[in-house]
Each structure stands twice: as C-alpha cells, then as structure tokens.
Amino acid sequence: ETGVTQTPRHLVMGMTNKKSLKCEQHLGHNAMYWYKQSAKKPLELMFVYNFKEQTENNSVPSRFSPECPNSSHLFLHLHTLQPEDSALYLCASSQNPNSVSTDTQYFGPGTRLTVL
Amino acid sequence: QKEVEQDPGPLSVPEGAIVSLNCTYSNSAFQYFMWYRQYSRKGPELLMYTYSSGNKEDGRFTAQVDKSSKYISLFIRDSQPSDSATYLCAMRSTGTASKLTFGTGTRLQVTL
Predict the structure, then answer these.
(1) pLDDT below 50 — which residues of chain A?
(2) What DSSP letter does each residue of chain A carry, written as one string?
(3) What is the DSSP letter of B82?
(4) pLDDT greater than 90 at residue B52
C-alpha cells in the first residue's frame, strides 16, 4: 500500500450505532488530519495530530472522537450521529506542520458516510 | 463573507481549450496557495503549490497569484477529458501550517 489509505470506503449507520473510521499513512509523515467534506461546502478541518499529540480540535461535537495511537494510524470513532453528519470524511497527512514553508498535505480517498 | 470564494461551476469546455479557474480571498495573511484536483470518489491530490505572488508553471498547468488583488488562478492549457474533475483552491498563512482554508471547488468537464 502506498500513500494514505482509508477504510471503510463506504459506511451506512443508524443514529444509535457506534462505528470507527480508520486511516493509515505510508509516507513517514508526522502529522495526520481529519476533514469533513459536504456537498457545496469547503473542506472543514476537524482534528489535527502532530507527533501523536492532538494540536487542533475545530469545535467538533463530542459524538466524533479521534484517536492517534502512532504517527501512521488515525481513527475517528463515531457514536450517536445525526443525519446532517452524512458526508465524505477525508484523512490527510503531512511531513511536519512546524516546517511552515514546505509542509503539504496528502489526502486519502475518503470514507463516504451515510447516517440514517 | 467567506474567507475564500470559488465559483462552483460546473464549467464545461471542449477538448483543447484553455481553462481558467479562479479563487478570491479576504485574508491578507495568506501566503501559501495550493490547487488540488479531486476526481469523483477520490481524495484531493495536490497539483500546484506557490508562495506569495507570481507565476508557477508545471507542464500544462500554470498557477498565478496576485496578492494585491487577493486573487489566484489556475490555467490548464490543451485541456483533456482526463482533466475533468473538481478543482479546489487552498491557502494558509505563515503561522499555521496545519490550517488550510479551502474554496468550495469548481467542477470542470472537458468534452470531446
């Protein structure tokens, strides 16, 4: 596997379910990100982990819970979601956001989430 | 007012045409500008990365930044059907490497 991978690619869940999204990066990067992409809206940054430490939480509801066990893996745990949470959830990674001038983000293919 | 404005399209052009995609922004602190291409059912992939004002060329793609007007452009020469995708502009300031601000994306369709 190369680049950034995400599983599952598609997920349908009810409002009372608990599920998890997984992201893995094979680029040797130190930072990982979760974004939400909804139709006709810009990508919304949700969480940032830099060297496994959470450095950004963009006022995300607590029904979304991230976990970063190491620099290569990132999870997004989901529980009691709402239908408006249906979106494409994208994971990204970058080498080191502390290197401001050169840092660029590489995205995975996303998980298409539908909440019924 | 959104920080970054981008016409959602769709923009339909014939094969071989020159395509111009644009974004305007309001935050004068933005210094780094990116264009991402996103095919249907895929994640965004980085196309162009520029710093401050000026032009950058890579093959058929040219990125242009005009900081005085707060306006960035992506030109695609000799457009191909394989260029059909959504193009997202993104930008950030010097102090927040992790925090990209994106446009909504412009959907481009190149027809035969």
Answers:
(1) none
(2) --SEEEE-SEEEE-TT-EEEEEEEE-S--SEEEEEEE-TTS--EEEEEEETTEEEEE-S--TTEEEEEEETTEEEEEEES--GGG-EEEEEEEES-TTSTTT---EE---EEEEE-
(3) G
(4) no
Contact A41 B42 (CB under 8 A): no
Retrieve residue B15's tokens. 């094969």
Residues B86/B105, Cβ–Cβ less than 8 Å: yes
Mean pLDDT over the full length of chain B = 93
What pLDDT digit, counting tens, does each position of B14-34 carry? 999 999 999 999 999 999 999
Secondary structure (3-state) at B87: strand
Distance CA A78, CA A74 (A): 13
Looking at residues B81-99, what average pLDDT do you find? Answer: 88
Task: Flag if A94 and B98 touch (Cβ within 8 Å).
Answer: yes
Sort A100 into a burial class: Cβ within 10 Å, 0-12 / 13-18 / 19+. Answer: middle
Count of beta carbons in the 10 Å neighbourhood of residue B87: 25
Nearest CA in chain A to B9: A40
Question: Do B43 and A31 make contact, defined as CB atoms within 8 angstroms?
Answer: no
The average pLDDT across B39-58 equals 91
Which positions ≥6 away from B63 have C-beta within 8 Å? B33, B35, B48, B50, B55, B56, B57, B72, B73, B74, B75
The position carrying tokens 């963009």 is A58
Mean pLDDT of B22-48: 94
